[in-house]
């Protein structure tokens, strides 16, 4: 990579983290490069910057598009496709959460519901654990739905208030005003 050290370190780290998040290392590196770039980049520039094959670049960009994490851009007089990431970090986070939910949480929730609909299977403990897990996941998805409808400014306020509320609950519990006594 013929990039500044800051870029290189970020891109390499993002590639390593990508593999832990369930995406290909190269896909993580492509995303990191686009994330740091002020201007949209074409596939040739990405290929050269990361010293990867053109086919890896193409497959990586397709995967990032399937996750709705990159935007396709065109430049006047240039027939090539250019790619960029959203400027709004909250949009990126919301997209990641929504995509992970669609790919991981929703299928699990469907399976848990199907298992419960089978009726008594002779293992009351397992049935209760499945029901408990389904209820927790449903609560989390309802919370996600509410948060995803919220404007970014309100969401930031809520998160800031959440930290304060945690401290307030700790104080109230110590004073035996609220909670277990």
Automatic annotation (TrEMBL):
Gene3D superfamilies: Winged helix-like DNA-binding domain superfamily/Winged helix DNA-binding domain. InterPro entries: HTH-GbsR_regulator, HTH_MarR-typ, MJ1563, WH-like_DNA-bd_sf, WH_DNA-bd_sf. It comes from the Bacteria. One of its GO terms (molecular function) is DNA binding. Residues 22-80 form the HTH marR-type domain. Keywords: DNA-binding, Transcription, Transcription regulation. Pfam families: MarR_2. The keyword Transcription regulation applies. Belongs to the GbsR family. This is HTH-type transcriptional regulator. The lineage of its organism: Bacteria, Pseudomonadati, Pseudomonadota, Alphaproteobacteria, Rhodobacterales.
């Amino acid at each position: 990579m013929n990039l500044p050290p800051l870029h290189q370190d970020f891109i390499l780290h993002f590639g390593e983290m990508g593999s832990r998040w369930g995406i290909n290392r190269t896909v993580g590196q492509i995303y990191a490069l686009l994330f740091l770039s002020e201007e949209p980049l074409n596939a040739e520039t990405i290929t050269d910057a990361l010293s990867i094959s053109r086919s890896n670049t193409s497959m990586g960009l397709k995967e990032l598009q399937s996750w709705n994490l990159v935007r396709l851009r065109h430049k006047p007089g240039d027939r090539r496709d250019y790619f960029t990431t959203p400027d709004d970090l909250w949009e990126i986070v919301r997209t990641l959460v929504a995509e992970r939910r669609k790919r991981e949480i929703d299928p699990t929730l469907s399976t848990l519901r199907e298992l419960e609909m089978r009726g008594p299977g002779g293992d009351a403990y397992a049935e209760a654990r499945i029901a408990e897990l389904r209820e927790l996941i449903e609560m989390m998805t309802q919370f996600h739905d509410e948060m995803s409808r919220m404007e970014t400014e309100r969401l930031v306020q809520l998160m800031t208030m959440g930290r304060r509320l945690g401290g307030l609950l700790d104080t109230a519990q110590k004073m035996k005003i609220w909670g277990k006594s």
